[in-house]
């Protein structure tokens, strides 16, 4: 029997009710903003009867009912003529574009580059001429292997891609947080990425290198060994995008007005220092907050704590290149900072979040070949290959050669050319002449070449036969891996060993595990022994090396995270677990000390509504205990009442909060009421110098000052029995 519809059942209150409109107006910054292109109806907004902006179709037709499709009878079929329904579903069906084949998961922000030292004597690049001048920038950080929806704390390289909208065109430095790469020739890139991505028959594992195919490829690719040291180090599990380095990786050239060139390597150095998490912590963060890194960047910018990096340059000439132990065109090698110091010439600040993730972070198109007059490539065969790949991939991903018309990709400087048409062309050249040369005269003839200011390649005279060959000068695969390993502090070396054992323990074929250990023998005998022991393997023979590894390269402090720690808690986050009845004065003192240290705090309480403190005031909570595990914080403190503390001592999530913080070598503040929790976790006899008693308000300042080293690594041998 047909049911008679009632008006109430058939419709929902429109979301643009005046109440919703008022609420939206009070949080304007979170409202979506659509910038309609000029001249396409965007200047004025259609107003609905209740005074708010009218919902329209994409054709601009005002919509009367967005809740129900058009039917023949209340329970009848939907009609083809429902153009609003069809347009809405059609558009939804086509919302996805192919994700990036690598670096699919990323997060971007806007900011600026400011020059602090002029390079006018070295390069004619406009961006490097005038001290104090700012250039708009967009930066996208990423993981490499995982797909778009993967988690942030994968063990992986991080992309660090910077688009600089200079006055002479867009310059992209498409770099990573690690200064070397797995391979020397772009020819091997598809193999490397196939091996790292989920195995093709089963479609897993996602966002991890801990599987047979990856280590099979790597163990057959000795040139990867230097990179293996870096990705097995804590560099591959950064605490935040804000606390990691960036590198241009390849050697580039800076070119002056006379065409003279200087070699250059680009470095981004974080103002807040380097920091990483522990592996066991990374695994748990991925469950607790898969968006940990993007949320961190979003929150820091929102709070006005703008992430900042210094731009550093290693500049050198042909004589240095000729005398250097390795080939400067080999992207598996660094130039130690002790050999060529990093000269700081500017700063990069990220001060604006994206308005729309898709429009900006997803559609931004970085291309290594986006360089500007005054910058040039070298013959690094990895870079040369990349120069083909990036333009090609944008066509696939964004679907049209007109991706430069998208606001995030468009130059900010004036531009003029004769390129036209194509899918989604938004601005074709005006006028009659769309070719060159033409004789229509300056006014309507369109743009002309500029031999003075235009981009010129460095004049080079390549010599030799046409060959498919790897140069002899690329043959040393181990020496810099040794140098990296000996530059690490003991705790960092231990983490490298742990990471190798973990990764290789997920490899099913013992011969692959063994082949990797045979490479490690060319890097460090103790490391190889530790890994073999951890895997339960007999130590194999060392791998045959094309060039005998050197052990005389001096350690470089710049390669260690711990040696470059910030010695400050600024920009970090304390997790403060409180219960009802807790000491309000002590809590206020901790909050004030954290604020003074330029750091952040999150309150965790048994209920998200907050805790009623001893003085009767309610302290709002950011997280409920199981929503705010200690892995999300750099350090933790707990302040409870006797009653609340007893409850914590019985609560599994509260016990995890403390035991994890302890296991991850965090500094811990233990306020009143925490005895039951400490004994409930069995840690009473283990508390060490990284644990601080917070008895009264006066203790808060000393506690927060003590957080500066970020971790109490001395604890690790006690909590990790492999140590
Ligand atoms: Fe990339 N890389 N890459 N890469 N790469 C891409 O371009 C490629 C390499 C890097 O946030 C792709 O737009 C080849 C080194 C970053 O949008 C693709 C080779 C370094 C990003 C591509 C390399 C990088 C990419 C996929 C070997 C550090 C993300 C989507 C020759 C210096 C940019 C895209 C963003 C992205 C190709 C090696 C950094 C397919 C062929 C070395 C940060 O074009």
Write the SSE topology.
Layout: H1 7-10, H2 18-26, H3 83-93, E1 106-115, E2 134-143, E3 158-166, E4 169-176, H4 189-196, H5 212-219, H6 225-232, E5 246-247, E6 252-255, E7 261-270, H7 279-288, H8 292-302, E8 308-316, H9 318-323, E9 343-353, H10 357-362, E10 375-376, H11 381-398, H12 441-444, H13 479-486, H14 490-505, H15 510-520, H16 525-535, E11 573-578, H17 584-596, E12 600-605, E13 611-612, E14 618-619, E15 623-624, E16 635-639, H18 642-650, H19 652-663, E17 668-670, H20 675-680, E18 691-693, H21 699-706, H22 716-719
Parallel strand pairs: 11-12, 11-16, 12-15, 16-17, 17-18
Antiparallel strand pairs: 1-2, 1-9, 2-3, 3-4, 5-7, 6-7, 6-10, 7-8, 8-9, 13-14
Helix pairs in contact: 4-5, 5-15, 6-13, 14-16, 15-16, 17-21
Q: Report the portion of residues in β strands.
A: 5-15%
Q: Write down the overall mean pLDDT.
A: 93
Helix content: 25-40%
Distance between the termini: 74 Å
Enumerate the spans where pLDDT stays under 50 for 5 or more consecutive residues.
Answer: 1-41
Major sheet: size, sense and barrel closure?
10 strands, antiparallel
Q: What is the CATH level 1 assignment of the largest domain? A: Mainly Beta
Please provide a written account of the structure.
This protein has about 725 residues and is of the alpha/beta class. It has three domains: about 105-405, Catalase core domain (Catalase HpII,  Chain A, domain 1), CATH 2.40.180.10; about 480-560, Hemocyanin, N-terminal domain (Up-down Bundle), CATH 1.20.1370; about 565-720, Class I glutamine amidotransferase (GATase) domain (Rossmann fold, 3-Layer(aba) Sandwich). It has helices at about 5-10, 20-25, 85-95, 190-195, 210-220, 225-230, 280-290, 290-300, 320-325, 355-360, 380-400, 440-445, 480-485, 490-505, 510-520, 525-535, 585-595, 640-650, 650-665, 675-680, 700-705, 715-720, and strands at about 105-115, 135-145, 160-165, 170-175, 245, 250-255, 260-270, 310-315, 345-355, 375, 575-580, 600-605, 610, 620, 625, 635-640, 670, 690-695. Strands 1, 2, 3, 4, 5, 6, 7, 8, 9 and 10 form a ten-stranded antiparallel β-sheet that branches. The protein has a six-stranded parallel β-sheet with strand order 15-12-11-16-17-18. Strand 17, helix 20 (about 675-680) and strand 18 (about 690-695) form a beta-alpha-beta unit. The radius of gyration is 29 Å and the shape is globular. The protein starts with 6 loop residues before the first helix and ends with a helix. It binds CIS-heme D hydroxychlorin gamma-spirolactone 17R, 18S. CIS-heme D hydroxychlorin gamma-spirolactone 17R, 18S (HDE) binds near residues 140 and 366.
